[in-house]
Amino acid sequence: MKELFLLISCIVLCTSISDAQDSVSISDFRYPETRVIDWKAGLSGNFRSNSSEYKSRWNSGPYNETINHTSGVMQINSNFIYFHTKDDHDQKLILDFYGGYNTSTREINEIEYSTNSYDRTNNETAWNYSANLDWTYQHYLTEEGMHLIGSVGARYYNSYYKNENIYHVLPADTLRTDYSKYYTVSFNGKLGLGFGRMRDGTVVYQALRVVERLREDGLVIKPLSRDETIDLVNRIMKRREYQINYERYDKYFIQDIVQELVDSGIVPKESVTPFSVVRMIETFHVESIQPRLFGWRVFYLFEDKHTQTGNEGTAFYLSPNTYNNDWVYEHLFGVEYGVPLSLKTHFFAMSTLELPTQDYSRKFNFDMSTSLSYELSEKIEVTGSYSFNRSVDNVMQGANASVDRSIYHRIQGNFVYFLEDQVRFTVNPAYSWNLDDYFPDPFSTTGYDMQKASGFSLSFGLNYNIY
Q: Tell me, what's the pLDDT at 425?
């Protein structure tokens, strides 16, 4: 708790220093309307090959196992976000799709206690896909204060797994195959109250970026006043209108931005060169700007969630053809905070606590995530993030009550290189650590199971900005 308090204090201090240094800040503005549409698609994959050898010796004799393992993974995803803000409401629509396929082969040679030796081939194939929809609407009773919240969501997940073992023994190979299928469908609705407001400063960031580019070219002859900056922001906010009304809208859009700056006396007439025009266009195309949310908000939601699951298969751990329907009612408490520390640096944090309407003293889920992004250059952006989860769940109720507790930490980096207009290359190194412990009797300390795990991962991919 002390570390968290110190972190928040440092953030507030850095914010104060930043605001004191910059005469113009993204968080200074309260423009009436913002509309953001972001649609991306990505493709990623990896291939791995490794070998291992295990040896042991007991009274019954030696045991040797040699494994040669190859595996490959392919993933595809698409994400669509629509964000619309006006004086009296905020609304956000998120649609995303994910599909994955992986396959692996293990060539295994086993020697059991000098009495039995055989070769075995293990083939695994798995695929899964999911689709999610979330829509949230917030109606503000005051501009920056109390607001009503409504939200609906739907999720679908489907997976298939096949495990094939071929035992190469005389007189003929023996084949054993297990498979499993699983699906889940869930719907949820939320109603609640909140206080405070989060705003998207992306358009303001683009306006400040345009002025920065012109200043680097030596064309800005006087600093912009706050009113002049707001006028430029309002002009850039109309970019969508140019896209609809003109087939090649860039030349009209940039022409009107330059004319706005000339009329305000910011740049001299006929001083903007073709090179400067290209740099201005890059602000809206080549240099992808992630949503810059700023402000703060606290909220409470009551959630009604319905989930249906089903599985079938021959794996030993499955009960064949099992289907479940589950209704859950929960209280959700949350807080959001975002601040642009500078023109190139942005901080965002979010935390939520879920409590069921029953047995809340022994069952909860707490999530916290933070991210700090920094633009190294026009084509490179770096983001560092930390996420934490703490949960307690009742595995069984009544006389056979038991408790399952878990703690999860994840530190992740995100390096984004913008290859061209709409294409980016990403590299994501991550380290995770988690602890799970299971108590058959929550009121006894005589027996429990505990498992710790940690790992490092490195993923890469290509993302295409469709819209």
A: 80
Q: Which of 462, 408, 416, 405 is nearest to 434 (CA)?
A: 408
Task: Give the closest residue to 370 by CA, choosing from 408, 402, 421, 411.
Answer: 411
Residue type (1 letter), 219: L
What is the spatial distance between Cα 367 and Cα 302, in angstroms, rounded to a whole number?
17
pTM: 0.60
CB distance 32 to 143 below 8 Å: no
Give the sign of the dihedral formed by CA 111, CA 112, CA 117, CA 122: negative
Query: How is residue 267 written in tokens?
Result: 């740049």
Decide if pLDDT at 15 tops 50.
Answer: no
In terms of C-beta density within 10 A (0-12 exposed, 13-18 middle, 19 or more buried), how is residue 49 classed?
exposed
Pairwise CA distance, residues 7 & 13, whole Å: 10
SS3 for the chain, per residue? CHHHHHHHHHHHHHHHHHHHHCCCCHHHCCCCCEEEEEEEEEEEEEEEEEEEEEEEEECCEEEEEEEEEEEEEEEEEEEEEEEEECCCEEEEEEEEEEEEEEEEEEEEEEEECCCEEEEEEEEEEEEEEEEEEEEEEEEECCCCCEEEEEEEEEEEEEEEEEEEEEEECCCCCEEEEEEEEEEEEEEEEEEEEEEEEEEECHHHHHHHHHHHHHHHCCCCCCCCCHHHHHHHHHHHHCHHHHHHHCCCCHHHHHHHHHHHHHHCCCCCCCCCCHHHHHHHHHHHCCCCCCCCEEEEEEEEEEEEEEEEEEEEECCCCCCCCEEEEEEEEEEEEEEEEEEECCCCEEEEEEEEEEEECCCCCCCEEEEEEEEEEEECCCCEEEEEEEEEEEEEEEEECHHHCEEEEEEEEEEEEEEEEECCCCEEEEEEEEEEEEEEEEECCCCCCCCCEEEEEEEEEEEEEEEEECC
pLDDT digits (tens, 9 = 90+) for 273-288: 788 888 787 777 656 5
- Structure confidence by residue, pLDDT tens digits, 152-191: 999 999 999 888 888 877 777 788 888 888 899 999 999 9
CB 280, CB 254: distance < 8 Å: yes
Structure tokens at 126: 């798995």
Rounded CA Rg of the chain: 28
314: left (phi over 0), alpha (psi -120 to 50) or beta: alpha
What is d(CA 122, CA 317) in angstroms, rounded to the nearest whole number? Answer: 18
| Cβ proximity of 409 and 430 under 8 Å | no
Rounded CA separation 43/98 (Å): 10
Q: Where on the phi/psi map is residue 305: left (φ > 0), alpha (ψ -120 to 50), or beta? A: beta
